[in-house]
Amino acid sequence: MEKSWLLAFLLLFHVMLRGAATTVGVGVGIGVGVGVGNAGGGVWIGGGINDPPPSGTAFSNINSAYIALQAWKSAINDDPSKILDTWVGTDVCSYKGIFCAVPRGDDGLGISPGPVVAGIDLNHANLQGTLVKELSVLADMSLLHLNSNRFSGTVPDSFRDLTSLQELDLSNNQFSGPFPAITLYIPNLIYLDLRFNSFSGPIPEDLFNKRLDAIFLNNNQFSGQIPQNLGNSPASVINLANNQLTGTIPASFGLMSSRLKEILFLNNQLTGCIPEEVGLFTDMEVFDVSYNSLMGHLPDTISCLREIEVLNLAHNKLSGDLPDLVCSLRSLLNLTLAYNFLSGFSQECTKLLIRNVGFDFSLNCIPGRVMQRPQPECSGIPGGGLSCLRIPAAQPLLCGSLGMKIDANLGPSSP
C-alpha cells in the first residue's frame, strides 16, 4: 500500500520501544521485500510477502490474528481491487495491507514470542463493509489506517482493548451516527482522523481531555457548540472545518498548548469575536476561521503570530482596520480578508504583493480601493454594538508580555 516505508518505520519504532531496555540492531522488510535482522529490536514481516508460516510460540499470536482477520474478511462485501484474494491461509503476515513485526522478548534473554500484527494499512483500497469486534484481539497493533474506503456502520465497543493503538484513521468512508465515543477509551491513541464521513450530533467534551496530538473531524455533520474545554487539548493540529457548529469560539481557546500549529474552524456557523488570546500561539502556522459569522474588530494580537503562514478570515462580518503589524508578519504566505466589512489597512499591507504574498481584501468597505462592497452595504456595519473582550493595557500590547497579562486578568482562581 502507499506510504509503506513510513508505515513500517513508525511500526518498527513502536515495537522497539515496547521491547527490552537494551536492543542492538534492527531488521527491516517492507512491502515487496523480506526483512532480515540481528537479535535486535524486531524483524519486519508482511505487507503481502510470502513468508514461511510461524511455528512454536508464534502460533498463538498469529492464530488469533487469523481468526480475527477472517471474521473481518467475511464482513467485507466488495473488494474491486482483489486485495483480499491474498488473505488466504494462516500466515496473516503475507496478507496485503497487514504488517507484522517480531518484537524482542522481555524475558531478558532476547527470546521473542514470535511475530505479531503491528499495523494495518488499507488506505485507498475501496473496500466496502463494516468493522468487526474480533479486531480487538490485535492488541499489538499500533496503526490502523482505512482512509478512502466504503466502510460504514459503527466502531465496535471492543476497540477499547486495542491497548497499543496510536493512530486511527477512518477518514473518507461512510460512517454515520454520533461521535464514536469508544475511540476516547483507546488508552494510547494520539492521532484520530474521522474526517469526510457522516458523523453527526455534538462533539463530546472528553475529546479535548485526551492526550491527542492530532484531531481531524472536518467534513462531517457535527452540530452544537464547540465544547468549552477546548483549551484542555494538547493537540498540535485540530480541524473542525465544514460542519454545523454554532456559538462562539470558547473562552478557553487561549489556554491551549503552545504547541498548536494549525486550527481550522472554517465553514461553520460560529458567531462572536476572534479571541484576543489568538496572539498566544506564536508558533501557529495556519489559522482559518473563514465562512462563519464572526463580528467585531480584529484583535491587535494577531500581529504576534510570528510563524503564521496562512491566515484566512474571509466571509465573516469583521469590521474596523486591519492592525498595521499583521502585514509585517515574516512567515506570511497567504492573507485572505475578502467578504467582510473592514474599513482600512496600512501602507505596509500594499507591500504584500511585492513580497509575493497572496493578499485578498476584495468586497470590504475600504475607501479608494477597487472591488469593494457598494456603499449602501457599508452604511450599516453588522455587530456595531458588539463588545469584544479586550485585554486592558495602558500601552500597546507587547507580544512577549501577552501571556502574563492574560494570566493577570484571569485572576488566581483561573486554571
Automatic annotation (TrEMBL):
GO terms classed as biological process: cell wall organization
Keywords tagged on the record: Cell wall, Cell wall biogenesis/degradation, Glycoprotein, Hydroxylation, Leucine-rich repeat, Repeat, Secreted, Signal
Statement: the UniProt record of this protein carries the keyword Electron transport: no
Location within or outside the cell: Secreted, Cell wall
Annotated signal peptide: 1-21
Name used for this protein in its record: Cell wall hydroxyproline-rich glycoprotein
InterPro entries per record: Leu-rich_rpt, LRR_dom_sf, LRR_extensin-like_regulator, LRR_N_plant-typ
Gene3D superfamilies for the chain: Ribonuclease Inhibitor (3.80.10.10)
Domain Leucine-rich repeat-containing N-terminal plant-type: 67-100
Species for this entry: Manihot esculenta (Cassava)
